[in-house]
Amino acid sequence: QVNTAMHEAKLMEECDELVEIIRQRKQVIAVKIKETKVMKLRKLAQQVANCRQCLERSTVLINQAEHILKENDHARFLQTARNVAERVAMATASSQVLIPDINFNDAFENFALDFSREKKLLEGLDYLTAPNPPSIREELCTASHDTITVHWISEDEFSVSSYELQYTIFTGQANFIS
Q: Per the confidence metrics, is the pTM higher than 0.90?
């Protein structure tokens, strides 16, 4: 019962730690998304303001042009028409700047999340088991006065980087173990 309680407590502690890491990362990513939203809305608001300003200037120019078209004095018409035509040309050139620089279809493509690897790891969460001992290939093993070479085959899925090798030297009276 004590052993089970200890393992259950350790399991709860480890799982709570994983949940806390996920919660913190979720919070960080949510903040980044909100910051990006605010930045994009600011840009969009500036573009809307620029478009409104351009629309107001264009409306004034159209009203002036309509007023000039009603002018009956030809000399006065020519004098004011040139001025209005220049202002229309300038307004047309500046309206090219109003092309939106935000593509709303891929506005959050840099926030693509792929949790497939993490999900696979979490689904495979289980107790670790010790790898099976290797099979020693005695026919390939060699020994000299200061070197021992041991060959083995491991059929386990775990990658084992090393094993501890103990040997005994028979001295006749007492065996020396190293």
A: no
